[in-house]
Amino acid sequence: MRNMKKTRPWLKISISGIIAGLCNGLFGSGGGTIVVPAMVHLVRMKEHDAHATALAVILPLTVVSSFVYYRSGFFEWDVIWKVAAGGALGGCIGAWILNRISTYWLRKVFGFFMIIAAIRMII
Amino acid sequence: MLFFFIGLAFGVISGMGIGGGAILIPALIFFGGISQHSAQGVNLAAFFPTAIFAICLHIKNGYIRYKIAFYMFLAGITGAYLGARAAASVSTEVLRRLFGVFLLIMGIYEFIRSSRNNR
Fold it and tell me: Taking CB atoms and an 8 Å limit, are A93 and B11 in contact across chains?
């Protein structure tokens, strides 16, 4: 809290919020990757609180972005419901596995795949 | 059925706290063959059920800092609207390349973070 007064984080919080919103709208993802570190580093929030608070920021931002996407005809409902159904089931399985294995190497592997996919998308 | 399995794989991975949209969007494009815009739309829409469920849990447990969340949301709302309108106004090729740059940064960040946390 002392740190909060000294550095006046409100401007930085606003800038982080705008960037998170831009990513959410432009890329349809990625808000959490900006909001969570911003909360941890700018206002010294605990990791757990930061995740919860980030969700409370990103959910309404996603409503705004979704509205524009929906109005622009980018919502393919037949794909959405299948992915959402699979995602809900998979989420439960993932949460169950999480407590049983280390994610260290998995993170590395997915970081690697993200970089490969990114290069393919840029070229 | 293909899209269900893409969703399932995505759900398992994000349930473990890795990736999220950064994994789902490329998977939908490379394996599902849908456009960049539609893939991003799927990611936005698929976020709702799990996020609403998680938020209810967080509200119950009292983890959310409402004041900071509200300020950040106020700042973010303009960004979200402008970002979404910008996405709607560019071609799927241009958006795919922009997303690629974003994904590259995220991938490198994930790589570095996983090394630093040493988990």
Answer: yes
